[in-house]
Amino acid sequence: MPNDRKDAVDDRFAIEIDLEPPFHDCDPMQVVWHGNYFRYFEIARCALLRRFDYDYPQMQQSGYLFPIVDTRVKYVRPLRFAQALKVRARIVEWENRLKLDYEIRDAGSGDVLTRAHTIQVAVAADSGEMLYLSPQVLLDRLGVALP
After folding, report:
1. Which 3-state string (H, E, C) describes the chain?
2. Which structural domains are found in the chain, ordered by start?
3. What is the pLDDT of residues 80-117, one digit of tens each?
């Protein structure tokens, strides 16, 4: 496989944020509604992309959009109102797409509560055409090169 995958050894491509689900994200049983998990992934993803100065405003300014085209979530245990959480986002692919893995853990016990990934593809903002290779600006911001 090309050198487009980074495992846990390179912390540049990962970030962990603290989060506590607010009451309005929960159902009547004080369990976080499953659709709200995507907001938590987005918060972590944006924090990670800001590290590379390539969050959504910079993407658009560079002429590209990066819509999410695929997601996968494994709900291991429920998240609850005001539960102290650690949300980790990690870039694992960037050559042909931008793939991020996520993990939500209980901050106290370290137990894994959720695992997920999202896949985004580069789209030229002016034409709406999907690119089959990541644009050079993304590679430059990440500090990587294609093989």
Report:
1. CCCCCCCCCCHHHEEEEEECCCHHHECCCCEECHHHHHHHHHHHHHHHHHHCCCCHHHHHHCCEECCEEEEEEEECCCCECCCCEEEEEEEEECCCCEEEEEEEEECCCCCEEEEEEEEECCEECCCCCECCCCCHHHHHHHCCCCC
2. 11-142 (3.10.129.10)
3. 999 999 999 999 999 999 999 999 999 999 999 999 99
